[in-house]
Design a protein that fits this description.
- With 152 residues, the protein is of the alpha+beta class.
- Helix content is 15%, strand content 46%.
- It has two helices and ten strands.
- Strands 1, 2, 3, 4, 5, 6, 7, 8, 9 and 10 form a ten-stranded mixed sheet that branches.
- A hairpin with a 6-residue loop joins strand 1 and strand 2.
Length: 152
C-alpha cells in the first residue's frame, strides 16, 4: 500500500496545478471591459465631476490610463483615500472585478468646461486603457443633487 501513496500524491498535485491554470495558457487571458452607471451631475461652475463603473469580466487586469472629452479642456482621474482626494495617472481594473467611480470616492474631474451641460444632455467621454482599446461613453447629465443610491 505504501507504494501507491507517492504516485497518488503526485497525480493529485499535478491535477491541482492544472486546475490553477484555468482553461488554456495563461497568456491567453485578456481583459473584457464594459461600462455602466455613467453620469455627470449638472455642473454649477466650469468644473464638473463624472462617475462610471468599469467592469472587467476577463481573466487579466487592465489599467485606466486616461480620459478625454471634447466637452472639457482636460479630464483628470482622482481617487479618494480616507478624507482626501488625489489626482492619479492611472487606476487598475482587476481581472473579474470592477473599478467604481462614485460620489465620495473615485471620480473624474472635467476641468475648463467649454460650456456647462444641462440636465438631460449627454457628454461624450472616451476612456483609454493600457491593454484594451478605448471605450466611448455617452454620459447623461443628471440634476446637481442626483444620487444613484437614492435615485434607483
Amino acid at each position: 500500500m505504501r507504494h501507491l501513496v507517492a504516485p497518488a500524491a503526485l497525480i493529485a498535485g499535478a491535477l491541482a496545478l492544472t486546475a490553477c491554470g484555468g482553461s488554456g495558457d495563461s497568456g491567453d487571458a485578456k481583459p473584457e471591459l464594459s461600462v455602466s452607471s455613467s453620469y455627470m451631475p449638472q455642473p454649477v461652475s466650469d468644473m464638473a465631476a463624472g462617475f462610471v463603473t468599469i467592469t472587467n469580466d476577463g481573466g487579466a487586469k487592465d489599467v485606466l490610463t486616461s480620459v478625454t472629452s471634447d466637452a472639457a479642456g482636460s479630464v483628470t482621474v482622482h481617487r479618494t483615500v480616507g478624507q482626501s482626494m488625489e489626482e492619479v495617472k492611472s487606476l487598475d481594473i482587476p481581472a473579474h472585478g470592477r473599478l467604481v467611480f462614485q460620489s465620495g470616492g473615485n471620480h473624474l474631474m472635467f476641468e475648463n468646461l467649454k460650456q456647462k451641460p444641462k440636465q438631460g444632455q449627454k457628454v461624450s467621454v472616451e476612456l483609454h486603457f493600457a491593454e484594451s482599446g478605448p471605450i466611448r461613453v455617452e454620459m447623461p447629465v443628471k440634476s446637481a443633487t442626483y444620487n444613484p443610491a437614492n435615485g434607483h
